[in-house]
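Quick illustration, no need to memorize.
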Amino acid sequence: MMLDVDFARAQFPAFAEPSLEGQAFFENAGGSYACAPVIERLTRFYRARKVQPYAPFEASRLAGEEMDEARGRMAALLGVGEDELSFGPSTTQNAYVLARAFAGFMDEGEAIVVTDQDHEANSGPWRRLAEEGFEIREWAVDPETGRLDPDDLAALLDEKVRLVCFPHCSNVVGEVNPVVEISAIAHAAGAFVCVDGVSYAPHGLPDVGRLGPDIYLFSTYKTYGPHQGAMVIRRALAQLLPVQGHHFNADVPEKRFVPAGPDHAQVAACAGIADYWDALAAHHGVTAERAADRAAAVHDLFRAHETALLQPLLDHVAGRDDMRLLGPARAEARAPTVAVALERPGAEAAARLAPHGIMAGGGDFYAHRPLRAMGIDPEHGVLRVSFVHYTTAEEVDRLIAALDAAL
């Protein structure tokens, strides 16, 4: 079964927007287009539900029901319990809240493992705990390939390590890390696991329940929804960590790790992501009863389509001696987030593509640590082109032609 790209694109108003006509979008790693069900739900909430939720009057009751619907349906797609999913303003903010929770849970001298492959969101908050007497150990990438070797992690683990943090895939290296294997290694050493899934989830929501991490983070504005951070904390760990919300919300699972009030409208609109996933599943004849199994089928559709489009781009970049490809040269091993180091600054390279109708990004992408580890000055930056399932083969061909014409 192949992804019906025309059907997928029909669910996104951006592809019918006159101001975007003729533009090929290759900065999806910075944020995807929003699908129509999300936009419709967000608009409806602001029109008819913009009141404090969970009161007895009709508009308030419906507002609360829509927020609960979003949490329940998204949790089901992820293969976790509704009480294990929280929404916050961003993944970075969620990681900071989690770091405060672990600071109150750990004993002085205990250790956290972080990587230098991460976006700063799943690195900086944890590293700051060194100022409070906790040990930070770095799982370092190979400076040539940017790869994280699980054998290197094993050498860092002992009875002092309470948490291992790593990305499902890096936002500049792109290689998909083996979450199941790494989680098993960490758990065997008695450590919990926190996975940053921001750069992976747009390419298919994972079944977190089967992957095995204790924490899984991603951003809904990169999975075709509103600007929220989604945070899965498995029940056993959540019950151990100290509450970070108001004391009177200690027994409300979705509020335990949300210090401020959530954005009601954006939480409710996340149900539109589930609408979109279900529409894709139905259109492609996927009839699995379990939501996470339907999501797995959609994930496979996305990955097959993206992998087929990605390999010609990787081959083209690898064939040029003036570009250094970061991460694997085989599409099967990575996400379609492709960063290249050039003689000219990354931002300049992106600007040169814009007149050719290519919307791409250039800079450091909050990935200072992996860039430095691979010998790249973050101020110089890289050119990054990133796509998702709604990208077409024709758009990739246009990108390749633009790379030759502009760079």
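DSSP finds 15 helices and 13 strands in the chain.
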